[in-house]
Amino acid sequence: VSAEADGMLSSLHWSERTSWDRQPSRLAELCAQAERRGMALTDLSESNPTRCGLLAPRELLARLGDAEGAHYRPDPRGLAAAREAVASYYRRRDLPADPAQIVLTTSTSEAYSWLFKLLADPGGELLVPRPSYPLLPMLAALECVTLNPYDLVRDEGWRVDVDALRRSVGPATRGIVLVHPNNPTGTLVRRDDAGEIARLAAERGLALVVDEVFGDYLHGPCRPDRLPSFAGTADAVCFVLGGLSKLALLPQLKLGWISCYGPTELVTEAVERLELIGDSFLSVSTAVQLSAPAILEAAPLLGAEARRRIVHNLGRLDQAIASLGPGCPLRRLPTDGGWYAMIEIPRTRSDDEWLERLVLDHGIVAHPGYLFGLPTRGTVVVGLLLEPARFDDAIDRALRCWAAG
Ligand SMILES: Cc1ncc(COP(=O)(O)O)c(C=O)c1O
Predict the structure, then answer these.
(1) Does this model's pTM top 0.90?
(2) Between the chain's N and C termini, which has fewer beta carbons within 10 Å?
(3) Distance between CA atoms of 177 and 324, rounded to whole angstroms?
(4) Mutation test of ligand 1: which of 132, 245, 283, 367 has the most ligand atoms closer than 8 Å to its C-beta?
(5) 141-154: per-residue pLDDT in tens?
(6) Which residue in 201, 186, 209 sits closest to 112, CA to CA?
(7) Ligand 1 pocket residues where CB is under 6 Å
(8) What is the 8-class DSSP label of residue 39?
(9) Cβ neighbours, 10 Å, residue 300
């Protein structure tokens, strides 16, 4: 007899932190509507490289079948050879890294969750940039941690307002999150601001959590006033996050990492505590760790086609806006790197109204700015990974839609 039939299981208590609104988003509803009408949609916000035709060579994936993978000899920080491979990846970029201060995770998302566990008790707070990566609030909620946004200054190229950041630090603040380059603004933190942020963190006993998943996708040479990476931060405890999902375009392999920097005693304590968290899950598969040295070595090649597309698509976007003439109400916001571009569009309609036009009248999907914490009018985010012929066609149609007002 099932418990249900027996009337024994009347209800369960569900945790608050999973009580999310599970209604389909407006965007999902519109896409479903377009599909019911038989429309073929082009998703300009696509950021899954494997759906953009950016597929890893079979020889490389075959490394996942290494016979050594028949054995299970887990190391809670990650297998030494894989950590060494991550350290070599940083050294190839002329950045310092020590395999003894690297901890492997299944993804950058998991790295965030381990760092939230490490740094904050339930109710503890971290400061996060706004606009930024939309998954952060969910990752934090799952750890019962509160995120308080600090605004990036749009008119100053999304610069961190360090004074405002300083004022946001409260008694429960445990760390400052930076996304570098940021998603979706694509901007890097300026060198002088980075120095001040590290000093603020050191003074107030805060950790820096720096997500550098897009660090290998700068759109040109790094400007001298921008910091290329937080790897090597010495004054404050700093956790630099990376992973194969963006670096090698292999989100399906599930490998990320935390590279730790800062005062030795604190870093040693952090690594020992992260090791305990890692030991509780041992989540990273042996197969991916064994293949990591070959994949990380091939990463510059694996990412090359994506970099080519990003540069082409960004140039094409600028040309297409210019071709609409001097009275064109559209503007592409300046950026340093990453997979996205932000476009200012007329505020004559709300983001959702634009979305409806774009999806149902033109068969194109782009992300509304509010998804990233921006106000609900005036900004749209497009991805730059699509194959150029598809991008060119879709961006032309989208720009004409927005420019028509
Ligand atoms: C800024 C940023 N960080 C992290 C991630 C997730 O990376 P992973 O696949 O390693 O969890 C994403 C994915 O889009 C991202 O945009």
Answers:
(1) yes
(2) N
(3) 39
(4) 245
(5) 999 999 999 999 99
(6) 209
(7) 47, 107-109, 133, 179, 183, 211, 213, 243, 245, 251, 256
(8) P
(9) 15
